[in-house]
Amino acid sequence: MNRGLSYIVVFLFAMQIVFAGITIDGLERTEYNLGDKINIKGKISYDETVIGALKIDLVCGDTSLPVYFSLVDINAGKSFEFNQDIPTRVSLLGDCNFVITVEGAVDDYEKESGNFKVSDELKVDVNVNVLVVDPGSEVVITGTAYRLNGEIVENGKASIEVDKDKKELNLENGLFEYNLGVSSTAKSGKHEIIFKVEDLIGNKGEDTTNFKVRAIPKWVELIVDESYKPGAVINGKALLHDQANDLIDEDAIVEIYNSESKLEYTKTVGTSDAFGIELGEFEKPGTWRIKIKTAELTSEKSFAVSEVKSKEMWIEGGMLYVRNTGNVDYTDPVQITLEGDSEVSFIKTTSIKPNQTIEVDLNNEVDYSGEYGLSVEGYPSITGNVVLEGKKAFGGSGLGWIALTFVFIFFIYVVYKRGRRFVGKKGKSIKDIRAKGKGILERTGTKEDETKQKDINYLVNKVKKENPINTNKNNSDDSNMFRIFDN
Length: 487
Known about the structure:
This protein is an alpha+beta fold. The chain contains four helices and 32 strands. Strand 7 and strand 8 form a beta hairpin.
């Protein structure tokens, strides 16, 4: 198709629109508020005479409302122009268009306008002058309200709502400003502002914004028990509270001071978290202090470390060990009983520092070696037999036995020799010899001899027990050397 033919087709099509139909001008906008007027205009042109009617309907969804009706008498080749302002209605909200109908032509003719929207929405905007504020400060809230056509909402009612606290405002020329005081005990974190506007016709709108309240630490709380035993675990919490008494998570330092105000323990903990600090087994009793320190606050609390008085004992060889397992000096006496050939009971005084151990050499508490039954008053776990060497040189070792045997033989020899002389000269009886021998010993004895005599008596008794006297008839009393010590 050449260019000239194209122009002819376009011209004929335009002529048909102009002279055989309805022409609708474009609408001013695509959105309208309640109370706005929608201008619809155009013309009717036919190449024949039309006597009938012009109807304009506003259709929104399934709802249709007649908005204009006019009788028309149009001569052939003439046109009829229409120009109407149609007010919006609350019942007609949503996507809409106009339907224009001409009745009375050869055929009824109908045409639709372009789509547009009828809305009750206002354009609302709200702002704050700061995003983060301290408790007790002020936030300036400003806002505006416009119709969809850009015009300011001059009159109407407005409100702001913060934390469910609603305040009515005056709206002047579509603008408002409000100074919001933030409570000194306001909760920290995000606070939302809801701004609502409604004009006198029923259009409305809202907008939201927010600001944050800073958490300000106000006081720190320590939760611990009032007393602990040595070796116990201090289970506690350090709670940091803000202006609204809500908890704040923050690092803190816990310090523990003993009864002499010396720093014993330190630990970094998280506030709101539980912590545990184990006391030493031998910590001194008295009033202790626990302190919590954050970046800005400090708090402390006293607690008592109780007094523990205790000991433990055990036996190793001939040694009795006593250990102070308490946290104060142990000064109670220890009564020990040893039962052997004779019973030995003695009291051992003590002065033992915490965690100190003393030893008691039981060998020094008995004269002679042997097996002894052991008991400690008030300590039933220490009981049984113990083998001791004794504190005497004689009988205390192999060398002591040899020395004791030598002394014994020496005295036997002396007595025997003098006894023979006495018998040979005087013809005395054995009984007289015994008496004479005792006399000799008594005259020549010294204090040291008396001590040795006790040892000899002990050994004689022991020998008698281990080697009882032979009662065979072939052995007379005179031939038994031990008879010389009989009374």
